[in-house]
Design brief:
There is one protein chain. With about 250 residues, the protein is of the alpha/beta class. Helices cover about 35% and strands about 10% of the residues. The chain is built from eleven helices and seven strands. The strands form two sheets. It has a five-stranded parallel β-sheet, with helices on both faces. A two-stranded antiparallel sheet has the order 2-3.
């Protein structure tokens, strides 16, 4: 069972707009979302080809593209939400970011709704999300994290996720730039629950009002309810910058 985050001793004041937190400088810590903020899943066509290869099957490009389109509609880990969650998968889906077995079970079940005619294909597709090769760090991720480290600003990754992403940062040579990880399946809470942000701040030893949460969704902006400032950036395609440099303007020069 995941443990549960404890709220701070004093109640956090309610957040106004994300920009309102900008006046509460200096920033002592930056909390980053993972998917869509620091890294992106590999391009869908490459994802399907890699999974098929792992099953000993070579796919023609047109078939791989057609399968990728159908799988994205069904629901991909790290990709778009499913167009429909089958009733048989609903319980696993609801708990996917709290338990590893639920995360795996939900996404393999969704992939299995697409008949690819390849034995073990749904499992192979899921396995790609568990390895660094299945993800692409944004090009501005490393320089942004390095600049924060050099500036003495602490960094945590706060993610709604059902598996451990620490090995990814180690493989990318970025693990030395991350001070803590608050992962939903370990904390037992999911964004936008304030508790997961409080846990991250507690790990870093900073007050929530001296922390900036950076993400790409409304769930990330929910950090204002925990007392943090928040910056929401647009999600970008794999390999393209997504504006992380704005973090430095707020954390180091704000």
């Amino acid at each position: 069972m995941p443990d549960h985050a404890e709220p701070p001793q004093s109640s956090p004041r309610s957040g106004d707009a994300a920009s309102a937190g900008a006046s509460r400088r200096p920033v002592e810590a930056v909390l980053f979302d993972f998917h869509g903020t620091l890294a992106q899943v590999e391009e869908p066509h490459a994802w399907v080809l890699a999974a098929a290869t792992a099953c000993g099957v070579s796919l023609e490009r047109m078939r791989a593209t057609a399968l990728a389109d159908r799988l994205l509609t069904a629901g991909r880990a790290g990709g778009p939400l499913p167009a429909r969650v089958p009733p048989a998968v609903a319980e696993l889906w609801a708990e996917r970011d709290l338990y590893p077995h639920a995360h795996r079970g939900a996404y393999t079940a969704l992939a299995a709704t697409v008949d690819a005619g390849i034995e073990g294909f749904a499992e192979a597709l899921y396995e790609r999300v568990l390895v660094p090769e299945g993800w692409v760090p944004y090009p501005d991720t490393a320089p942004t994290l390095a600049a924060l480290k050099a500036g003495g600003v602490k960094v945590a990754v706060v993610s709604n996720i059902g598996f451990d992403i620490r090995p990814f940062f180690a493989a990318w040579g970025l693990d030395g730039l991350i001070d803590a990880y608050a992962l939903s399946y370990e904390v037992g809470r999911c964004k936008p629950d304030p508790a997961i942000f409080w846990r991250a701040c507690g790990m870093l030893g900073v007050d929530a009002e001296r922390a900036l949460m950076v993400g790409d969704t409304a769930a990330d902006a929910g950090a204002v309810r925990a007392g943090c400032a928040a910056l929401v950036l647009p999600e970008a395609e794999p390999g393209r910058p997504n504006g992380l440099g704005a973090v430095l303007d707020l954390a180091l020069r704000g």
